[in-house]
Automatic annotation (TrEMBL):
SMART domains (UniProt xref): S_TKc
Protein name: Protein kinase domain-containing protein
InterPro entries xrefs: Kinase-like_dom_sf, Prot_kinase_dom
One GO term of the biological process aspect: intracellular signal transduction
Gene source species: Aphanomyces astaci (Crayfish plague agent)
Keyword Acyltransferase: no
Keyword flag Endoplasmic reticulum: no
Region (Disordered): 174-214
Domain Protein kinase: 39-155
Record Gene3D superfamilies: Transferase(Phosphotransferase) domain 1
Domain of life of the native organism: Eukaryota
Amino acid sequence: LEANQRILWEYLPQHDSSLSLIPPLAHDVMESVTIVGDYTIHGTLGEGQYAAVYACSRNASKLNDITALVRVHSEISALSDPALRHPSLLSVKHVIHTSKFIYLVTERGGKDLFDFFAVADAAYSAHAKALLQAMLTEDAENRPTIYDVAEHPWFDGHRRRHSARHKDRLVKAASSKGDMAAAVHSPTRPTSAEHVSVTLPSIKGPDKPHHYPR
């Protein structure tokens, strides 16, 4: 196991171009429970399947598991991408590669997603919650149709911003709904003696039934 770990940490990043963003192994970096290089660790912020996040004196440092080398490289690539620079997104400030771990030093963010849900009732409005619950109803008889969904109060804000476009959609939906109802309730034409007569419901309805040979 130790030999495999040595290959994983020391050999692959230097000989596999797909892992080029992982720096060479640093042998002169001080590493302990409370210190990693120039950073002092003050406590654990959280832990996941592949990483643990620690609070440092200046930044946040991410400690990654040995089995996640490719995942670490992908994360470095994403956090270093200039196209993804945004005040709400973390970016890599420093990468430290030691004999034990790979450390990703980033700015320390604010609340995580779980903290947000802990103080908020929901991340969406009551109208949206009610609509989703109705759409997920198992009983088809009580489940709203596409027309009911289009007329739900949750769409009011969108209608106000795009009133002309939504009005046109609602008119078309109501028209189609009426045509379909009329087609379903229209009497079926009688069958002939020589051919099988089939009436196919459609939006406008055919003038004559479609005949198919026996």
